[in-house]
Automatic annotation (TrEMBL):
Major localization class: nucleus
GO cellular component terms given for this protein: nucleus
Localization (cell): Nucleus
Domain SWIM-type as annotated: residue spans: 539-575
Transmembrane segments: none
Biased composition (Polar residues): 655-665
Gene source species: Salix brachista
Amino-acid biosynthesis as UniProt keyword: no
Name assigned to this protein: Protein FAR1-RELATED SEQUENCE
A Gene Ontology biological process term: regulation of DNA-templated transcription
Keywords: Metal-binding, Nucleus, Zinc, Zinc-finger
Length: 780
């Protein structure tokens, strides 16, 4: 930014900012300017002593003033001279200037933040070509948000240096993501069978990598003591497996524990670092990083250790659905650690293997895929799938192919026909490029070193925070745009988050291109055929009015979590003009983070969302004011505590006085949640003073009953806490006692469950204390 001295029109000293083209009276600036505060000094409050080179320069000045104060801007109006055609007048305002004007019968109303704010700046052009401030209104009728100002549209690209670096980095990272597809996922079952007993492998790290990881973990734990990490050593006391998760990941899982994707793509594709991710999805359809691991191999042992470690880090709550690759070792581990959950395979994992596994059908590939897709995606009943499957195998002579046999054996884990009443929340897609897990491809490529990955890991966390904060900001400050008079669209506009609403909106508009025909009807269910003219396909929809159950063969609800256009047109033609509550997943609503389930009536949902959004906005104001001084902080904190206490007391009283059967939940996940949220593994492992004890790790009786730990044998032990000040959490898997038949692992896994490890660290970590493992048990 260049600044030069000059005189103003009154002969007084002034300073001109060459980047913006305006002059400021130096007598009005009382702060000494240095390189770090020039911007603040050069953006005083607008006044009539400031001149501009053009109306664009005036708008730049107003934008910078607005950014420093905390509001968004808009160009309200401008006027040209009739003779010279040059601009002579312009008015700029706060984005909330004026009132929203919309007729009741508007078909395509635009979203509007207008709430009657009067803040504005009016500039006019002098005869000499200079522009001056004709009028300025400072007062706003709403809160100002300087901390979140970069989220306003008018300020999102105002930091050229930061944006240039970020854009360049993103371009570089996105280019390497194209390397995906160069490798095919190969399941080497022979290698798995040969190596499943190999418990002596160690993690292959380059020189210095161990220290880099240790430094990362120490840094993360210093920032937040709840940061979790654990290591696994082999019999030679070498590092074998390593797991970690940041506090945000644990918090995200508490809010969105329904679906988790365990991605081993970087292992199977032979990347330089053996990295695996646990990934979820939040209410803005953004990926949540629920844990990372570096693993030495793909044995049953490794995956059992990893699943148990992840389970403990997540507060001993099992997910409802876990998505993985089709892998026998992973399948065995999940069956042992999480026997109650629904384990499914990602569709793209299956589909990407076809060219590799069925090379000799490549001559008929197009024809084969047409038949295959018809069998997989168009089979409405299990009987229909069975008939088409065997016909397909006979046509292409595939009955004796081992991989095809495994697909059929695992059919209930991946074929959409069997996925009724399961919700994948968009995590299972047909293409990897469409999956949320592919977002990591921007940060990790085949030759990424450990040093590079640690930098990229920090960038992953930073980008996730920024994206979620921006989405939250938009949800609180922008209203959804309606594009039709549909009652479904209007009702869900206040319920769904912006991203999900836009996706649902596409389905609402697409219903106009659908034509339905009644095929059959019995005492409870009416079956329709819906012709979708947009994709020239026909779909089967079943509607049970008495139970408000609706199923479509496109399975949008199962895979995406919201109803499709085919179901919407059936509801509309059946005289139902609101989405049945069971098909409104709380995870996609603006109340997704609420610890209380939202009510079943749609108007209750809308009211709760309005209240929730209003409280969030007010909380931002309180945070801004309360953080200005220690005294205001104490006042705000006291008020919050008192209000929270009163609200909790009121809500608890209301719950106590209500009927016993008042789950109050949109029925979306209730039946499945009741079964799948039963505790899976009942783990007992020692913690450190930096990791909080997880609730429900063991019952009181078990905690009070302790005994010794011996190599090769683990008996019941107390849930002791060992103070490892800055150590890794050393974790192993115990043998299962014969007196606990309900905890027994499958017979074939008995010999791969290791004994407890010694409390000895590898050479790289000798200066780091570790903790003892007292007991780890497999799940009920």
């Amino acid at each position: 930014m260049g600044m030069v001295g000059m005189k103003n029109r009154n002969g007084m000293d002034a300073v001109k900012c060459e980047d913006w083209g305006y002059k400021v009276d130096l007598n009005l600036l009382t702060t000494i300017m240095d390189s770090s505060v020039i911007a603040a000094c050069a953006i005083p409050e607008p006044h009539d002593d400031i001149e501009f080179e053009s109306h664009e320069a005036a708008y730049s000045f107003y934008k910078d003033y607005a950014k420093s104060v905390g509001f968004g801007t808009a160009k309200l109006s401008s006027r040209r001279s009739r003779s010279s055609k040059e601009f002579i007048d312009a008015k700029f305002s706060c984005i909330r200037y004026g009132n929203k004007q919309q007729s009741d019968d508007a078909i395509n109303p635009r979203p509007s933040p207008k709430i009657g704010c009067k803040a504005s700046m009016h500039v006019k052009r002098r005869q000499n070509g200079k522009w001056y401030i004709y009028s300025f209104v400072k007062e706003h009728n709403h809160e100002l948000l300087p901390a979140q100002v970069h989220f306003f549209r008018s300020h999102r690209n105002d930091d050229p240096l930061k944006n240039e670096v970020r854009i360049r980095r993103r371009k570089n990272l996105s280019s390497v993501s194209k390397l995906f597809g160069a490798y095919q996922n190969v399941d080497c079952l022979e290698g798995y069978m040969r190596n499943q007993h190999d418990k002596g492998r160690s993690l292959v790290l380059e020189s210095g990598d161990a220290q880099l990881l240790l430094d990362l973990f120490m840094h993360m734990q210093e920032e937040n003591p709840k940061f979790f990490y654990a290591v696994d050593l082999n019999e030679e006391h070498q590092l074998r497996n390593l797991f970690w998760v940041d506090t945000k990941g644990m918090e995200d899982y508490r809010n969105f524990d329904d679906v988790v994707c365990f991605d081993t793509t970087y292992i199977t594709n032979k990347y330089k670092i053996p990295l695996v991710f646990f990934t979820g999805v939040n209410h803005h359809v953004q990926p949540t990083l629920l844990g990372c691991a570096l693993i030495a191999d793909e044995t049953v042992y490794t995956f059992v250790w990893l699943m148990q470690t992840w389970y403990m880090a997540m507060g001993e709550r099992a997910p409802q659905v876990m998505l993985t690759d089709q892998n026998n070792a992973i399948k065995a581990a999940i069956g042992a650690v999480f026997p109650q959950i629904c384990h499914c395979f990602c569709l793209w994992h299956i589909l990407e293997k076809i060219p590799r596994q069925l090379e000799y059908v490549s001559l008929w590939h197009d024809n084969f895929m047409v038949k295959f897709n018809k069998c997989i995606f168009k089979s409405w009943t299990e009987e229909q799938f069975e008939k088409r499957w065997w016909k397909l195998l006979d046509k292409f002579n595939l009955r004796e192919v081992e991989w095809v046999q495994s697909l059929y054996g695992d059919r209930k884990s991946w074929v959409p026909t069997f996925m009724r009443d399961i919700s994948f929340a968009g995590l299972s897609t047909m293409l990897r490029s469409e999956s949320l897990t592919s977002s990591y491809d921007k940060y990790v490529h085949a030759e990424t070193s450990m040093r590079e990955f640690i930098k990229q890991y920090k960038m992953i966390l930073e980008d996730r925070y920024e994206e979620e904060a921006k989405a939250d900001f938009d949800a609180w400050h922008e209203t959804a745009e309606l594009k039709s008079p549909s009652p479904f669209e209007k009702q869900m506009s206040l319920v769904y988050t912006h991203e999900i609403f836009r996706k649902f909106q596409v389905e609402v508009l697409g219903a106009a291109a659908c034509h339905l025909k009644k095929e059959s009807q019995d005492e409870t269910t009416t079956t329709y055929t819906v012709k979708d003219f947009e994709d020239s396909q026909s779909y089967v929809v079943e509607w049970n009015e008495s139970k408000s159950d609706i199923y479509c063969s496109c399975r949008s609800f199962e895979y995406k979590g919201y109803l499709c256009r085919h179901a919407i047109v059936v509801l509309q033609m059946s005289g139902v003009f609101s989405i049945p509550p069971k098909y409104v997943l709380q995870r996609w609503t603006n109340a997704a983070l609420s610890r209380h389930p939202i009510g079943e009536r749609l108007d209750e949902v809308q009211s709760k969302v309005r209240r929730y959004n209003d409280l969030c906005r007010r909380a931002i104001i309180l945070g801004e004011e309360g953080s200005l001084s220690q005294e205001s902080y104490n006042i705000a904190l006291c008020a919050i505590r008192e209000a929270l206490k009163q609200c909790a007391s009121l809500n608890n009283s209301a719950e106590t006085s209500a009927c016993p059967n008042t789950s109050g939940s949109i029925e979306e996940e209730n039946q499945y949640r009741n079964t799948s949220k039963e505790r899976a593994p009942d783990l007992q492992v020692t913690g450190t003073d930096k990791v909080p004890r997880r609730a429900g790790a063991a019952n009181t009786k078990e905690r009070n009953h302790s005994s010794a730990v011996k190599k090769g044998k683990v008996t019941r032990s107390g849930d002791a806490s060992v103070g490892a000040q800055e150590g890794f959490h050393l974790m192993g898997i115990s043998d299962v006692g014969p007196t606990q038949p309900h905890n027994m692992m499958p017979a074939q896994l008995q010999n791969v469950v290791p004994t407890v490890f010694h409390n000895i660290m590898p050479t790289q970590f000798q200066n780091i204390a570790s903790t003892h493992l007292h007991e780890t048990r497999l799940p009920h």
